[in-house]
Specification:
alpha+beta, Arc Repressor Mutant, subunit A, 3-stranded antiparallel beta sheet, 6 helices
């Protein structure tokens, strides 16, 4: 005999059959049924597709769920109904998934211009940071391109291992530059 509870969707459908005018928020569902809020939408996707449950966006509570027979909200407040009736929706769920329409126009591939040459960034370029690190005195700093971070970090790590000098590399979120400073 299995002690595994029935799936969340069937428990929620049963709850709404017994309480047709109830509306539950994500925290309500998590507390009542012992599930994590982040997985609720995934667990209930099939019941939404087959119109066993209705989900709508509420400005105060985020997403809320209710049974299809609920009179708590007017139909205009509900999320859009599925395009197919529930019986056809379950049959469609077993069919091959439809391809999404492209959101960009496909150019004529037979006449698309092709250019010669391919720019290749030298990602393994070795930079000798010694002249800069030698010039940088304590409590001084300089700005560098953010793309130099990996190479600079390697040089600073080697410098920390071989000297008593200490450096710090900082970068503001989204910034195109980083700052190298010497602390000692």
């Amino acid at each position: 005999m299995s002690t595994t509870p029935p799936p969340l969707a069937s428990r929620l459908v049963q709850f709404f059959e017994q309480n047709p005018d109830e509306v539950l928020t994500l925290p309500d569902i998590a507390a009542k049924f012992g599930v994590h809020q982040s997985s609720i939408h995934t667990h209930l996707a099939g019941a939404l597709r087959t119109a066993q449950l209705v989900r709508r966006s509420d400005p105060e509570h985020g997403y809320v769920y209710q049974g299809p027979a609920s009179k708590a909200f007017k139909p205009k407040d509900l999320m859009p109904a599925p395009a197919e009736p529930p019986v056809a929706a379950s049959a469609a769920a077993t069919a091959a998934p439809r391809r999404k329409a492209l959101r960009w126009e496909v150019p004529d591939l037979a006449t698309l211009p092709i250019r010669d040459g391919l720019p290749r960034p030298n990602r393994r370029r070795e930079v000798d940071w010694t002249p800069l690190l030698d010039r940088l005195k304590p409590n001084r700093q300089c700005d560098l391109p953010a793309g130099a971070h990996s190479s600079l970090r390697k040089a600073v790590t080697q410098r920390h291992q071989t000297t008593k000098e200490r450096y710090i590399i900082t970068r503001a979120a989204g910034a195109a530059t980083l700052t190298l400073g010497r602390t000692a």
